[in-house]
Amino acid sequence: xxxxxxxxxxxxxxxxxxxxxxxxxxxxxxxxxxxxxxxxxxxxxxxxxxxxxxxxxxxxxxxxxxxxxxxxxxxxxxxxxxxxxxxxxxxxxxxxxxxxxxxxxxxxxxxxxxxxxxxxxxxxxxxxxxxxxxxxxxxxxxxxxxxxxxxxxxxxxxxxxxxxxxxxxxxxxxxxxxxxxxxxxxxxxxxxxxxxxxxxxxxxxxxxxxxxxxxxxxxxxxxxxxxxxxxxxxxxxxxxxxxxxxxxxxxxxxxxxxxxxxxxxxxxxxxxxxxxxxxxxxxxxxxxxxxxxxxxxxxxxxxxxxxxxxxxxxxxxxxxxxxxxxxxxxxxxxxxxxxxxxxxxxxxxxxxxxxxxxxxxxxxxxxxxxxxxxxxxxxxxxxxxxxxxxxxxxxxxxxxxxxxxxxxxxxxxxxxxxxxxxxxxxxxxxxxxxxxxxxxxxxxxxxxxxxxxxxxxxxxxxxxxxxxxxxxxxxxxxxxxxxxxxxxxxxxxxxxxxxxxxxxxxxxxxxxxxxxxxxxxxxxxxxxxxxxxxxxxxxxxxxxxxxxxxxxxxxxxxxxxxxxxxxxxxxxxxxxxxxxxxxxxxxxxxxxxxxxxxxxxxxxxxxxxxxxxxxxxxxxxxxxxxxxxxxxxxxxxxxxxxxxxx
Length: 646
Prior knowledge:
Blueprint: H1 2-29, E1 34-37, H2 56-62, E2 68-72, E3 74-76, E4 88-89, E5 95-100, E6 117-120, E7 137-140, E8 147-149, E9 152-154, E10 157-158, E11 170-173, E12 178-180, E13 183-185, E14 188-191, E15 195-198, E16 204-206, E17 209-211, E18 214-217, E19 221-224, E20 230-232, E21 235-236, E22 240-244, E23 248-251, E24 257-259, E25 262-263, E26 271-274, E27 279-281, E28 284-285, E29 301-303, E30 317-320, H3 379-383, E31 435-437, E32 446-454, E33 466-469, E34 473-476, E35 501-505, E36 507-508, E37 522-524, E38 534-541, E39 556-559, H4 563-567, H5 584-596, H6 604-607, H7 620-632
Parallel strand pairs: 1-2, 2-5, 3-6, 4-7, 5-8, 6-9, 7-11, 8-12, 9-13, 10-14, 11-15, 12-16, 13-17, 14-18, 15-19, 16-20, 17-21, 18-22, 19-23, 20-24, 21-25, 23-26, 24-27, 25-28, 35-37
Antiparallel strand pairs: 29-30, 31-37, 32-33, 32-38, 33-36, 34-35, 38-39
């Protein structure tokens, strides 16, 4: 009878309370204020960082429904005195955000310094637990609009008489607060060291860790009497229950919903139930727990208890290591926050299988901000303000399109480029020390990657087989120009004949971006290009990741010719036999002059060498020797590509 009477009174009280809360919310919405707290502040009105109040209690005393409180890094206690019953009481309609550095002008600029914004129950004698606050934070008859986001809650000690023996870190009664991005560590209680939920409350707890908390029952969390917390992407580890439920204790008609969580390494068992029915899915529970997609495997934390080997201290690291079974093992539909406890993007491809699935636990492994256009807004929010249950509804959201429905804003898609082409009419050219191409897609900033795919006999493998085309330079072609040279031709000019210009480039080790397509015909005349080798040339847009092979165009394959392949076709008298008679004065000189493209060089027409190649790429010290050995049928006398002339 007493239980039924209590239940009836409770329902009536909650109904009346909800009605009054709605009235307060409507009345205060038009006059919403942001209050600022900084432990180095000296203000009294808390209306800006320059007038920030030094303690959170002052701001809570000023705030009403619709307001926000921004708290800079520092340590804050519920009282400057010794009153153990003092607590940070949440307020319906008031959102308290921690993790600021004290300069931000918008919530989106928050520095996410959650571990450095501390709500502590360590009052009285510093370091002594015996005189600490019973509850660091309390939610009493509050609704989901009572928000606590971005704090470390520590050093609460609920060792008094009921209810001051429940919830050392946080005590929730008849309440459904929203708790996000929080760390509960080093709290103690008779029941519920980290958090205690009772009497029909439905708290939402997301991206939180519970570590180093201690109680008889429920070291991390205790739920009682129709408590229905929703616990998502949280990590419980290193908590202690001297009786049962090191991670979580559920007693009498409690129905928590636990998703994407890790409960591992707690003393006293992970989840203990009495007359309760939790729903646990997509979670890693040591010892196992019934539920869809649950696992029982070492999560491979980086260092759960830190270098000091003590749970619940600042050096703990509950992030996942590579190979953790918790990576990409969660349920994306349960995710309501765009970021994890580190403030980095949720739902990334952590295991490299090209599918982005949320991890279990408070931290996303290898979380690289999925913000391709660099505007500070996650890509999913660029596309849809309503994504993640409305968490994406921030300024400038939803402005991007996704025409190909690949989940990437169109402005970030990697443009496909045409493959470089063989120059028109060059099919018969025999190239030795250069390669030529026509880059496509004029007007696009691209890079050209050159890959050496095969070497002639006599060469050994060497480094730098994959390089990039450097800056193209327009130069005067030195085959048959008139004198004096046209303005700007410089030292490459050779007198006699018509004036021609060409685009030429060297190779370099680093990627170079340029509108190569506007150049047209481009000769790469680097002296390290090897005769008798095979090269491929691929284009990639400069907005694309060069580490992703899918971003490159189809390759253009170019073969360079051996020296003898050109010179031994002279006239049927010389260079036809490997060890034939060589006239050094005529034959070698003619061959060398041909490669230099000197105007009037003997048998130039017979060699069929591209006339638009500058002569200053011939290596005098090595190429003559190569020519001689080629005529003799001998291999090249060096192990790598020739060095550039001085």
